[in-house]
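Researcher: For the annotation table, I need structure tokens for UPAR/Ly6 domain-containing protein qvr. Please keep the output clean. Sequence:
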Amino acid sequence: MPTILLFAFIFTVISDVKSQDIRCYACTTIDANAMLSEISDPNWLRWLENVRYVPFSQKCIDYFEVDQALRDGVRSNECSNGVCMKMIFQEKNGINHVWRSCIPNAKEQIRSDCTKITSGEGNLEVCTCDGNLCNSGTTFKILTALLLPLALILR
């Protein structure tokens, strides 16, 4: 009987989280003014202009340590009916630029996935996810590490 109650509790928590708006980390290592001055396409410019509205932090790097990032000014924002996003641009010289944010009102239009684009300028990877604070890059690993031993014990 306690096993059934435990599964009911886990299901209720997971269902409750999915039905609410999520939160996403918001930060960038991109020099927004320099980047935006080089873009001429109005559609890209309109979307990329949002990079101006997130905190600049060197702790926003791809190896994201949440505690250090939050102490350095990284925020988590509510993402109304949206998905979280992490964009990594790697220049040809190996320098990485990261942007973490929310894409609001996109939950029905954008699925959780990663897309990679390679050009003469470098490599771009954009990943989206629909879990709470999932754009840290570590949420899935932590959840798996916590639930897998529990599943083995209850087996």
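Researcher: And a one-line annotation?
Model: Residues 30 and 97 are 6 Å apart (CA to CA).
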